[in-house]
Specification:
Helix content is 29%, strand content 43%. By secondary structure, it is α+β, with helices and mostly antiparallel strands. It starts with a helix and ends in a 9-residue tail after the last strand.
C-alpha cells in the first residue's frame, strides 16, 4: 500500500510539474508573440517616414555658404526636370553660370547635387527646411542656408 501511495504521489507530482512547464511555455510563447507584434509595428512606423517629392526642389534656389576658404559665398541653383530626370545649372551670386549639374540623386529627405567647378568635382546635399527654405552642406564640410527665388511674373507690353 505504501508503494501505491508513493506512485500516486509521484504521478500527481509529475502532473503538477508538467502543468508548470506548460504554463511557463505558454507564457514564453505569449511574450514572444507580443514582442514580434511590437517589432512589426515599429518597423511599420519607420516605413511611413515622410518623403520630399522631387517637385519641391524644382526652380531656383539662392544659397549662402558660410566658412569657405575665400569667405562666405553665394550660389544659385536652377533645378529643372527634363524627361523625368532632375538636372540644372549652378550660378554664382552675380548670375554668371558656374557649371551645369552633372547628376542629382533624390533621397527620402534630401537631394545630392553633383557638379564640377574650378577643376573639382563637388557635391551639395540639400535638405528641405520648409516650403521656401532649405539647408545644404557643401562637400559635407561647409554649411549653407537657402531660399526659393521667387520668379517675377513677366509683364506683357
Amino acid at each position: 500500500m505504501k508503494y501505491l501511495s508513493i506512485c500516486i504521489y509521484l504521478f500527481l507530482l509529475k502532473i503538477a510539474i508538467l502543468k508548470q512547464i506548460e504554463t511557463t511555455a505558454m507564457k514564453t510563447l505569449k511574450n514572444i508573440l507580443i514582442a514580434s507584434v511590437c517589432i512589426l509595428f515599429t518597423i511599420g512606423a519607420k516605413a511611413q517616414t515622410t518623403t520630399v517629392p522631387a517637385e519641391f526642389y524644382l526652380g531656383k534656389w539662392a544659397m549662402q555658404f558660410k566658412g569657405l576658404p575665400q569667405g562666405d559665398g553665394k550660389m544659385v541653383f536652377g533645378i529643372e526636370k527634363k524627361d523625368s530626370v532632375l538636372t540644372g545649372t549652378v550660378y554664382d551670386g552675380a548670375g554668371n553660370k558656374i557649371a551645369g549639374i552633372d547628376k542629382i540623386e533624390l533621397n527620402a529627405d534630401n537631394v545630392t547635387v553633383y557638379f564640377s567647378a574650378g577643376g573639382y568635382d563637388v557635391n551639395v546635399i540639400v535638405t528641405k527646411k520648409d516650403e521656401n527654405h532649405i539647408t545644404a552642406s557643401l562637400m559635407s564640410m561647409f554649411e549653407a542656408e537657402g531660399e526659393r527665388v521667387k520668379e517675377e511674373p513677366k509683364s506683357s507690353k
